[in-house]
Amino acid sequence: MLADRIHKMCKEQYTHRGMPKYFTDSSMSKEVNVNDLRFRVQLNDALLTKKYGTECPLCPEQIDRKHSFDHEGYVWTPNKHPISMNHVVIVDNVHKPQEYSREMLEQLADFAFEAQPYFVFYNGPDCGATIRDHFHFQAVEKLPLSNFPTANNQYINHPAKAFHWSGSRDDVIENIDKIVMTGIENGVWDEPQVNIILRYNDTSSKGMFYGDVFLRSKHKPDFYYENNYDVAPATFEMAGIINTKSRTTFNNINKEIIIKILTDVCISDSEYNIMKRAVGIQ
Ligand SMILES: [Zn+2]
């Protein structure tokens, strides 16, 4: 089982390098209730010091292969700055850009199935992927999103523009791909600005795929610089874990600010309506 391999690999990482402070230090994480959804906010100051050299940090020769494993043309390696427990980066063996394709969505679904019950996800460029020159996915064991209620293929009370599907692999993939294509055809994006999360859970008798797509318009909110709210949302933020780089933002952030950030980085109401119609949601 892939989940067991990930678990073992991450356990070694924590033994080796120690746990991130915000996992255990209660002064570095807090819960914020956003319209009855429980968001976790953490002070992730490692993000401030995260620097890359001139070499691509995801090319195979830059990765610590002793503490990683190979699977299906990808290197699975612990994230050096894990945002949540057992957080891995799944890196393509080939240096090629981060971009959407139907083929990559199929690959994401394969990995979600093989790494069940992990959430496997994709950050598009300009909406979360910090390294956009080298194709990669990520995976993590738990996300608050799995506790957020849904109705009519949308999250109830979630400030972001998103869709949620559960069902067969083909249905979930077909719907996500239709959304992405609708965005391209209607000039919402050239390269799709989406955060896509897939998960397979076989606790129901049939086994079930769960798919989410968050529809983005930008990487950072407009007030990122003016107000010093240093949150640059990616999949984790959309899915309920907000990372702040500074103590000031961490202290100040509240329900209203989270709503403002997540609303600001998503597509407009009219663009959302076009996509709803494309997949038959009223
Ligand atoms: Zn590379």
Give a structural overview.
The protein has 282 residues and is an alpha+beta fold. It has a single domain, classed as HIT family, subunit A (2-Layer Sandwich), CATH 3.30.428. Helices cover 30% and strands 23% of the residues. It has nine helices and 13 strands. The protein has an eight-stranded antiparallel β-sheet with strand order 3-4-5-7-6-11-12-10. A three-stranded mixed β-sheet has the order 1-2-13. Strands 8-9 form a two-stranded antiparallel ribbon. A hairpin with a 2-residue loop joins strand 8 and strand 9. Helix 5 crosses helix 9. The longest helix is centred in the middle third of the chain and has 17 residues. The radius of gyration is 18 Å and the shape is globular. The model has no long low-confidence stretch (mean pLDDT 93). Bound molecules: zinc ion. Zinc ion binds next to loops.
Q: What layout of secondary structure does this protein have?
A:
Layout: H1 2-17, H2 21-24, E1 29-34, E2 37-43, H3 46-49, E3 69-71, E4 74-78, E5 88-92, H4 102-114, E6 119-123, E7 136-140, E8 150-151, E9 154-155, E10 162-167, H5 169-185, E11 194-201, E12 208-215, H6 235-238, E13 241-244, H7 247-252, H8 255-264, H9 269-278
Helix pairs in contact: 5-9
Report how far the terminal alpha carbons are from each other: 40 Å
How many domain regions?
1
- Low-pLDDT residue intervals, each spanning 5 or more residues: none
Estimated share of beta-strand residues: 15-25%
Query: Treating each run of at least 4 consecutive H or I residues as one helix, how many helices?
Result: 9
The biggest sheet amounts to:
8 strands, antiparallel
Mean pLDDT: 93
Bound compounds:
zinc ion
What is the CA-based Rg, rounded?
18 Å
Strand order of the largest sheet: 3-4-5-7-6-11-12-10
CATH architecture: 2-Layer Sandwich
